[in-house]
Design brief:
- It contains 14 helices and 21 strands.
- The protein has helices spanning 42-53, 85-98, 115-128, 153-178, 186-197, 210-216, 219-225, 267-270, 278-293, 338-353, 367-372, 384-397, 430-439, 476-483, and strands at 3-7, 15-21, 30-31, 62-66, 74-79, 104-108, 145-149, 203-208, 233-239, 247-252, 254-258, 298-308, 319-322, 328-331, 357-362, 377-381, 401-403, 421-422, 449-453, 459-460, 470-471.
- The strands form four sheets. Strands 8, 9, 10, 11, 12, 15, 16, 17 and 19 form a nine-stranded mixed beta sheet that branches. Strands 1, 2, 3, 4, 5, 6 and 7 form a seven-stranded mixed beta sheet that branches. It has a three-stranded mixed beta sheet with strand order 13-14-18.
Length: 487
């Protein structure tokens, strides 16, 4: 991860980045006055240069100008748009890519840069500089250090620390999700969580293995994991700071590979199924982030982990599964497995943990992308206030979600002649019926529950702003923003 320093005066000026803002009225784009005195002639040179660059000042633009034999030797002009946090996040991402072949870069910020702007800038730098590779072959970015020159470093210290934690935990979620499933199985995931939690105080980790799951009646997790030689697990990670008065349970789907089971997926749909545990990665990252930032809210994460494989012991279409707490599900599609493991975790949270708020994230349906495209998660809740608060946090974090309906007339599709519920009806909107099914396991927390189907935004096809091709770590940023508002 990039090393970010806050400085009142620049120490290294080999490569200097300067902000450019859009035109005002009929004027051309202009350099933004910065907090530090620049070497002689630089201000005038940049003022003359900007009109010739054809920059508009929009975030995402950059222009490199070489100055051989002078200091600085290279100028990077970076568009910062209207100067809000979103624009600065994109500016940071742009700078990370434009300076990837430098060893370090100094960015002089405006006098009036707010802590929110600095947080956005640092998040953009860290997120866009992320790389995941299992080989040393190919080019490696040289950039290791970025110095931010501000009027008062102390004013921005908390914002930078929040951004660093957000970047680090998003990178962890991306690492977990990007890892090929030849390495990643439920026990491997457990070991990554254990290692990441080891240095954080006031965290408790409990892991249920197959025998524990059987003894306690987690039938959904056991059914989905039955076809694999790598047995299922249930991770319970608890951040419990002294004095916390609000308790949130986060649940994340953790299917470490999904073949579809006996209802096997076609090959194109199976290629990226290492990402089917992105919900678990997100809630784990958010909980570790809450502990690192010492947020004054209790957060318990439940990550039901299983491989959905094809074998003689795999559960069958038409089987009836008995969940934690006794509710039964008829499942006629073994590729609708994620909701089965989530149902167990939700029922356990309601019955045993009794939180104030219950939130789950899951790469649950392909219907998410059909309805909302590649960028938006589908958010469901009956609680208008909770939905509004989470959507505000999603927006502030630079992610995207859209609230979807929970129509009463679709509930009849969950009826079964064999069991209490049908988990995989073939009628209705797929993402909606999946959410309605999960709602059946929320008990008296139904009006304090929120579900996000984030299958589509969990993966990016290529680099774009702060996203890099591959796993996005979607949800870590949003959850940390939201948790920070709770007391």
């Amino acid at each position: 991860m990039l090393a970010i320093r806050l400085l009142a005066e620049p120490e290294r000026l080999d490569t200097l980045a300067l902000p450019v803002r859009p035109a005002r009225g009929e004027e051309s784009p202009e350099p933004v006055p910065v907090t530090t005195a620049l070497p002689a002639g630089v201000v005038e040179e940049v003022a003359a240069l900007v009109p010739a660059t054809r920059l508009t000042g929009a975030p995402g633009e950059t222009y490199a100008h070489l100055r051989p034999g002078r200091t600085p030797g290279r100028l990077l002009l970076v568009g910062t748009g209207d100067g809000d946090e979103v624009a600065w996040r994109r500016a940071g991402a742009t700078l990370a890519r434009a300076a990837r072949d430098e060893t370090y870069v100094t960015f002089a910020l405006p006098d009036d840069a707010s802590p929110a702007a600095v947080r956005g800038l640092v998040e953009g730098l860290l997120l866009a500089s992320y790389r995941f590779r299992l080989t040393d072959a190919g080019p490696t970015p040289s950039l290791t250090d970025v110095d931010l020159v501000v009027a008062d470093p102390a004013t921005h210290a908390d914002a930078v620390e929040a951004a660093r934690t957000t970047g680090r935990m998003t990178a962890l979620a991306r690492d977990l999700t990007n890892m090929p499933s030849s390495v990643k199985n439920p026990q491997w995931f457990v070991e990554q969580v254990r290692a990441a939690a080891a240095d954080l105080p006031d965290l408790t980790l409990r892991v249920r293995e197959p025998a524990d799951l059987a003894a306690e009646g987690f039938g959904g997790i056991l059914a989905v994991g039955a076809g694999s030689v790598n047995g299922p697990r249930l991770v319970e990670l608890d951040w419990h700071p002294a004095g916390a008065t609000t308790h949130v349970v986060l649940v994340g789907k953790g299917i470490t590979f999904d073949t579809g089971g006996i209802s096997i997926k076609p090959v194109p749909a199976m290629k990226l199924m290492r990402k089917d545990m992105a919900g678990a990665a997100a809630v784990v990252g958010a909980t570790l982030g809450a502990a690192a930032l010492r947020l004054p809210v209790r957060v318990t994460t439940l990550a039901p982990l299983a491989e959905n494989m094809v074998s003689g012991s795999a559960f069958r279409p038409g089987d009836v599964v008995r969940h934690y707490g006794g509710v039964t599900s008829e499942t006629t599609n073994s590729d609708a497995e994620g909701r089965l493991v989530l149902a167990d975790a939700l029922a356990y949270a309601v019955r045993e943990l009794k939180p104030d708020l219950l939130v789950d994230l899951a790469t649950l349906t392909g219907a998410n992308a059909v309805a909302l495209g590649k960028r938006h998660g589908a958010l469901y809740s009956e609680n208008d206030g909770l939905a509004a608060d989470v959507l505000a946090a999603v927006d502030a974090a630079g992610e995207a979600a859209w609230r979807m309906p929970l129509p009463a007339d679709y509930v009849e599709y969950l009826g079964s002649d064999l069991a209490d519920l049908h988990s995989s009806p073939d009628r209705g909107a797929g993402s909606v019926t999946a959410a309605l099914y999960l709602r059946e396991f929320t008990g008296d927390l139904r009006d304090r529950w929120l579900h996000i189907d984030m299958s589509a935004p969990s993966w990016a096809d290529g680099d774009d702003a702060e996203l890099t091709g591959g796993a996005t770590g979607w949800g870590v940023r949003s959850l940390l923003r939201w948790l920070a508002t709770l007391r």
